[in-house]
Amino acid sequence: MRMKMFAAETFEAAKAMIFAEMGADAVILSEREIDGGVEVRAAVDKMGGVGMVPNEPLFLRDARGGGHGRGSENPLFSRVRDALLWHGSPQRFADRIAAEGAGRVQHLRDPEEAISEGLARIVTCDPLPARLDRDILLVGPPGHGRTATAAKLTRRAAMARAEVAPVAADLDGTAGGAQLAAYLEREKSQIRTCQSPDDLFATLKTLKTENRRCVIDLPAINPFDDDDMASLQDLISVIRAEPVLVLSAEGHPDDQLEAARSFARAGIKRAILTKLDVVRRRGGAISALSSAGIAFSHLAVTPFIGGGLVPAAPMRLAALLMEDAPGDVIALKGAA
């Protein structure tokens, strides 16, 4: 039996350290409060190699082998991992980011810089250009901010002196055209509203003959409804537009992961992460998109239509993943 003492600020953080280092078979033997935190003793029966738990992830094994240490051996590793766990990131994602950043790179001292380095090795950031080179089809679950995002992309293009036509695909009769017009401070008649798939196809054909790009605000899609997802795949197959997921940072990490994977299976490769200004814990959504293999396009960090989108980058994601970082921490740095 192998025993070890772990010290952390909270019992939950200590447990995270234990299971990350000793594996799921670890048993907690004792715990007590100490100045500044808790001290927990744990043990594991199975050993392998030269003291490594056999089922330890390869990326953690690499971090140990690199000589920089992890857990209690590397305070920066613990700081990064604890920040990600506080934000609701799954254990494995938090461990991997900490290992890729604080565990591999010797010169790092700042937790935010270490998170950025770890994210740069794992996630993909691929912002949409202000001057769109193809039409955009915004998809996403109910209430995640698709219409506001359509307005923001339209306003962003106008600021870049590139006209983009906003199209409300009001296929479910929820007055999406009126809402989009209100966001853009336009008359409803100025918004191209489509009441049926045939209307949408005709509108897109007209815009193509006029050589104009558009942003299509599609009705809400339930990622857990097979019929909804089948309809989305059918639409993607016949419309020459890039489907872009609009995903809110709100919600349970498991639901976010399942939703992201469902949209990825439908062919979505890029996402805009919204409502970052109204949530405190953002790790679930970020890890969900990363695990689903969906690239980050933009971050919606304010409710304002003008200047409400920030091009995604590892350093910006890292700024949002420090403990209790305000949602507007990056709002004035690169917004468009």
Automatic annotation (TrEMBL):
GO terms for molecular function: GTP binding. SMART domains: SRP54 (SM00962). GO terms for biological process: SRP-dependent cotranslational protein targeting to membrane. Residues 133-323 form the SRP54-type proteins GTP-binding domain. It comes from the Bacteria. Keywords: Cell projection, Cilium, Flagellum, GTP-binding, Nucleotide-binding. Pfam families: SRP54. InterPro entries: P-loop_NTPase, SRP54_GTPase_dom. This is Flagellar biosynthesis protein FlhF-like protein. It comes from Hyphomonas adhaerens MHS-3.
